[in-house]
Amino acid sequence: MRVFSSMTTSGSGMTAERLRMDVIAGNLANANTTRGLDGHTYRRRLPVFSERTSSPLAGWMGHQFVRTQSAGVQVAGIVEDPSPLRREYQPDHPDADDEGYVEFPNVDVVREMVDLMTASRAYEANATVIDVTKQMATRALELGRGV
Q1: Of 1, 43, 54, 68, which is least packed with CB atoms within 10 Å of its CB?
Q2: Rounded Cα distance, 131 and 29, in Å
Q3: What is the mean pLDDT of residues 20-26?
C-alpha cells in the first residue's frame, strides 16, 4: 500500500537526520579537542547520504498505469572534513609545536549550529509527513465505512 511506502520514505529521512544531529553534536563536543585517542587533532565529521530505492510500486494514477520506485535516504558513511585545521599561537599549551602554535579542530561552531537547525527542521518535516499520512489513511478508512 502506498501509504506505508511514504511513511517508510519519511522514516528513513528521520533516521538520517537524527544521525546527522548526532554527528553535529560530536563535532560541537570536540570543537576544542587538540588530541584524540590516536594522538591527532580531531577533525570535523560529515555524514554522507545517498538515495535508497526499494522494489517498484505499480498502480493506476488517473487513467494511466504507473510504475514508481519507493525512495528514501540512507547513510553511505561518515567522512572527515579535509579542510585545514585552525592554528592558534599558544606557546604555553601542552600540544604547542616548536613555534608555539596549537592545531585546533576545523569545527566552526556557528556553522554547526546552522547545520543543527537545518537537520532539526528536516526531521520535523518528515515527522509531519508521517502524521499527515496517518490522518489521510484514517480518513480514508472512515469514508470506506460510511462514517
Answers
A1: 1
A2: 33
A3: 98
Backbone angles phi, psi at 63, to 5 degrees: -105, 15
Q: Are 45 and 27 in contact (CB under 8 A)?
A: yes
Asked if residue 80 lies in contact with residue 45, where contact means CB atoms within 8 angstroms, the answer is yes
Name every residue whose Cβ is closer than 8 Å to that of residue 82 and which is 6 or more positions away in sequence.
Answer: 43
Residue-wise pLDDT for 116-141, tens only, equals 999 999 999 999 999 998 888 888 88
How does pLDDT run across 56-103, given as a tens digit for each residue? 555 656 666 666 665 789 999 999 999 999 999 999 999 999 999 999
